Amino acid sequence: MGWLEGSSVLVTGGGSGVGRAVVVRFVAEGARVVVLDRSAERLAELAAEWGDSVRTVVGDVTRYEDHVRACACAEEAFGGLDTFVGNAGLWDFARSLTDTPAEILAAGFDELFAVNVKGYLLGAKAAVPLLRRSRGSIVLTLSNASFYPGPGGGPVYTAAKHAGLGLVRQLAYELAPDIRVNAVAPGPMATGLSGPKAMGLADTTIAREVPIDRIVTERSALGVAVRAEDGVGAYVLLAARESATTTGAVIDISTTGIPRRHTSSAAPAG
Ligand SMILES: NC(=O)c1ccc[n+]([C@@H]2O[C@H](COP(=O)([O-])OP(=O)(O)OC[C@H]3O[C@@H](n4cnc5c(N)ncnc54)[C@H](O)[C@@H]3O)[C@@H](O)[C@H]2O)c1
């Protein structure tokens, strides 16, 4: 019997990358999943592959009414909602404050925060009535950029992911004791992650632009490239009833928080 047997889950951004890996694993754990994503094409693939276990809703996480439609779909198809996974996100491709023209910075901020922060807030707002009924939980996708500055983000992305951490803590406080609110913080990996149109980053992906596997292998403690499916156990754990006393927690699954240890004689001093 799976950890999430019989539970009903809504995942945003489940058409690709981390969200897709969460959907696949949750289904394997016995859950039935509604996926809200803006890509009709990716959703059609998911629906074809997973049949009755997955329902799809084409929509935009920046629009409250789209979250409401996705929640209604969960209620109608699966009888309610046990877990809301807020995950859809954009990246700023580490564009710096200094090198980004002011008007692009301003428009990029509005677009990225609308997805990465407002999208989580509105999703939670729409899901709360159903989650109160099931005494369910919220799991948000954060990032190593929720904790550390560095080359993995520009100020817009890092600020948005820090804001996500604030949301987890404030909502854990506000929604207790009925609804638990937790998060998973992945690190860099090659996915379809794209950026704000206003910054000219809508049609590219992290996998295409950045040699992520090489960077992560060279710099992270474990020395291995990470795949989206590697960290999904953390989502399962937080969504499961086994975590009934866990709220306001973040599981940091990024391997880059701990730097690679130099073992050769060429190790730098200090
Ligand atoms: N890939 C990484 O290196 C990395 C590292 C740390 C954290 N994360 C986080 O993981 C989460 C998922 O990213 P990913 O890497 O899987 O990216 P991805 O692009 O592969 O998947 C994100 C999905 O979200 C959807 N989406 C984007 N904007 C949307 C919107 N406005 N409305 C509805 N759907 C929308 C996309 O269509 C896509 O299917 C994000 O929150 C991201 O910040 C990613």
From TrEMBL:
PROSITE patterns (UniProt xref): ADH_SHORT
Alphabetically, the GO molecular function entries are:
oxidoreductase activity
What sections of the protein cross the membrane? Answer: none
UniProt xrefs under InterPro entries: NAD(P)-bd_dom_sf, Sc_DH/Rdtase_CS, SDR_fam
Swiss-Prot/TrEMBL keywords: Oxidoreductase
- SUPFAM superfamilies, A to Z: NAD(P)-binding Rossmann-fold domains (SSF51735)
One Pfam family name from the record? adh_short
Q: Which family does it belong to?
A: Belongs to the short-chain dehydrogenases/reductases (SDR) family.
Q: What is this protein called?
A: 3-(Cis-5,6-dihydroxycyclohexa-1, 3-dien-1-yl)propanoate dehydrogenase
Species per Swiss-Prot/TrEMBL record: Embleya scabrispora
